[in-house]
Amino acid sequence: MMSSRGEYDGRGGEAPRTDGGQPTLKTIAFMTGLGVTTVSRALKDASDISLDTRRRVQLVARQIGYRPNRAGVRLRTGKTNVISLVLDTDEQLMGFVSDIISGISGHLAATPYHLIVTPYSRKSDPMDPIRYVVETHSADGIILSRTEPEDARVRYLAERNFPFATHGRTSGSIAHAYHDFDNEAFARLAVDRLTALGRRRIALLAPPTRLTYHQHMLRGFRQGLAESPAREIPFTEASIDQPIEAIRDAARSLAKRDERPDGFICASAASALALVAGVEEAGLVIGKDFDVVSKQSANILPLFRREIQVVNEDFRKAGDELARSVLALIGGERPENLGSLYVPHAVQTGI
To answer: With the C-alpha atoms ordered 247, 212, 310, 304, is the resulting torsion angle positive or negative?
Structure first.
């Protein structure tokens, strides 16, 4: 029966609301005919509650828009039911931001957990947001990115036994949960494709040298060159973290040299757009005078220049894997069992 406020109680009366008009555990108990304790355990997916009952309770909870009172949960359990994504506010929008948030949120949707974004600027101390979350216990787990070989954030969290996962790996001895893209394999694939296109002078537009995946990409790049007829044209004047105007200008200057590259490898889609713009400003034609292989997370580069060769990186999948790992750590899994690596196998072209 529907109440005068349009609320269905499942019994012929109005479902009780006792939390400022919001649905509560009592609301769900009233609608399902179950006890409050049974409803609470069913929402937590307790194994001693039958699967049919869990599904019925969880369905009703979704239909009426039930949300647990996080303050009450914290008082009862000591948990916040929050996962914090520590996010660099200077990250390029064509990077991983929206997709990784979507992947994390999608995985958490079927759990009691919620995502909050804890921003910081790379101009400030990257330890600040980590210390804040841990010291205030404003989340039960942390996801962080832009890992360094010896990452102080990783050491700090591991020493405090605080659940966390990283987007990217470290080179240290601390075992931790992570999901990473195999940038070494990407660079080798890119060299192979460019040499197959007849390119013999190849430049790498790389990540900043302080990040771990710079090491991985550079190693794959040089391994690929060692096994090919091509050679490196150094491109140290730019990195993908620079403003796109600076990348464009550096690429234009490089393309005007007597010994210019005829092939480029880019570590991100935004940097590839800037690089192609700069090289074209120098009077060169893509597909004729030079070729580009770049990573991308959305199918944007072939729309800009269909000659650009691309390797796709799935940041939604990364977000899903990272959320899965953090929840597993909260559940007691050991971090050394929670590493995942995506290995790319193909370069694609929009032609």
So the answer is: negative
